Amino acid sequence: MKLTIPFYLHKVGAGFPSPATDYIEDDLDLNTHLVNNAPATFIIRVQGRSMRDVGIYDGDLLIVDKSINPKSFSTVIANVNEELVVKTFIKEKEVSYLTSGSKSTIDKINLGENQEVIIWGVVTYVIHKLQ
Amino acid sequence: MSYINYSKKKNNIALIDCNSFYVSCERLFNPKIINKPVVVLSNNDGCVISRSTEAKKIGIKMGEPYFKVKDLVKKNDVQIFSSNYALYGDISRRVMKVIKEFSDKMEIYSIDEAFISLAFVENQRLNEYGKEIRERILKWTGIPTSIGIANTKTLSKVANYIAKKNKTGVIVLDKEKDIDEELKKFDISNIWGVGKQLSKLYIKNNIDTAYKLKNISNTWVKKNTNVLGAKTVMELRGIPCVELQTIEPKRKSCCVSRSFGKKVENIEKLEESITTHCLSAAEKIRGEDQVAKTITVSIRTSPFDRHREYYSNSITIDLPIATNNSIELIKAATEGLMAIYKYGYFYQKSGITLSNLNDAGKEEFNLLAPLLETKSKSLMEAIDLTNTKYGRNSISIAQAGVSSTWKMRREHFSKIDTASFDSLPMLKI
What we know:
The structure holds two protein chains of two kinds. By secondary structure, chain A is mainly beta.
């Protein structure tokens, strides 16, 4: 997972060097921003539109951290009926369940009743291409 | 055993071993195969190299050629995978990183197992600590493991074997009574470091369990085995003799070989394959800043083909100057190939080995060296840089060919690579 953006502070030219040269450190590394726990972080590409309501679009990349536990309204990867799916995790006083996007709760999956549903990881960032 | 003069200091070694590692990697993004029999095949879909518990139960043996188990596979709907080392390598690095956080002293023993020192953990806490390691690896990477903990590497291997077999996750062998009880049931040939020859010798002398070996007299060991045999006996007694190798030794040789997807008859195709092997081997040793003094070229036909005569040969060439220059290596390898190639055979495998590796710059003085060196060094650097930037084989040597009929057969390849943007796991949502 190498992902660095070179961070140039001045163009090369004649004359005095930029006074900022001394302050150049390393390339700006998106890993440090997007990846909190490297060995537990996976990048997964998604195909489909069911999670538009939470801002996940066709072709987006999800940064998924397996090491953290979901909070209410976390976007999660879950193993439902032998298939990995992206869902919203909702926790209420007594029960927790999964929905497709936070607005529709019609197709919700109750976690108490479905022992075989396993939370695979928590989505921490979405990388969405605009151009 | 009063005559032992080693001290029995507290050592506490844990061996952490991933369960059916390659299968577990394939299951990570494919929950459909979690409770099914799964098998992973070696390069070129040759032999079975990893089996799920379900696959073991229906009688698929380790190392068996794929064609021999095809009937079992069909009858039991076994899921077959070609090996995907890019994926396994990335998952392995993750697992090792997680393990490293539990101990400063760690020896990565293979792609799926590591020894760590737990000398700093109180004995009564070992089990709990092992469970914690196991749970974290499972949660963070999705890979199940078994952990054996004991005072020596050999005993930790024994403990690990039991943990794996009984599916208990963690086994601690730290009490003499427990150790002896287990060693009495432990087959001599399953002991770490006891190979086929040695176990034959032991069995011939009626030593068929680990317990009998542990209690054998020192004089007998001295007389009948070598240093390694003696170390194993000591280790079974709980006296550490095999240190953790916490620093990875630099490689002493570098081997690249591949079986052809389709058998190869003409020398041009063989040349192409040898050239490609040289390119990747040279790149590997350049990456470690090493140079090779000798190169070995080997080719062979299929040993299983009953209709054609078997031919296998290899040649070792001493290079005039130790080098990591692809062009020099290819030149030598091609000459070697010419010498051993025989017309009329259908070749199945080719390979090269670079050996007598030394750190670059340390090689002996040679009058010709400086002239050749500087010119080729910058060329090789340019090639490596381009290939890292634009992907493998962007720049190559023309002799490597562009068509690659000898490429690996991978009919059941999962195509996932968690460390490459081109092959990330994909979810339909």
